[in-house]
Amino acid sequence: MDLGEPSSYLVLSAGTPVYSSDGTQIGKVNHVLAASDEDVFDGIIIGEHLFGSEHRFADADDVEEIYDRGVVLKLDAAGCAQLPKPSANPAVMHDDPAVAQSDFRHQRLKRAWDVISGNR
Q1: In Å, what is the CA distance from 11 to each residue of 34, 69, 108?
Q2: Structural domain boundaries of the chain?
């Protein structure tokens, strides 16, 4: 699989294939979540994926590399199946309390939901 040269979230576009760490195409980028004016990449919303019709959220920490023609996640295909769905109320998601950045992840999921639902 030739994904081209390493690239940036700044030029990542909808429809770009998303792959698991084991090389399975799991879906396509639906939306890039970023605050480009602050140079902050939050993650991607994945659509047209193997796991049903709902969108999935891949946090920036889940992204291994962005290339010209694809995004590779750090998760294998089984791990990608567990990616969260953006929800209207991410505060009710159950994250591991031992994870120090759980509040930060909730903020990212809320931003993802706002983008998808048009509340942004």
Answers
A1: 11, 11, 20
A2: 9-86
* Overall pTM surpassing 0.85 (yes/no): no
Q: What is the CATH number of domain 9-86?
A: 2.30.30.240
Q: Which residue has the tokens 């983008």?
A: 115
The yes-or-no verdict on residue 47 having pLDDT over 60 is yes
d(CA 46, CA 38): 23
**Structure token pair of residue 24:** 């399975």
DSSP collapsed to 3 states, 46-88 = EECCCCCCCCEEEEHHHEEEEECCEEEECCCHHHHCCCCCCCC
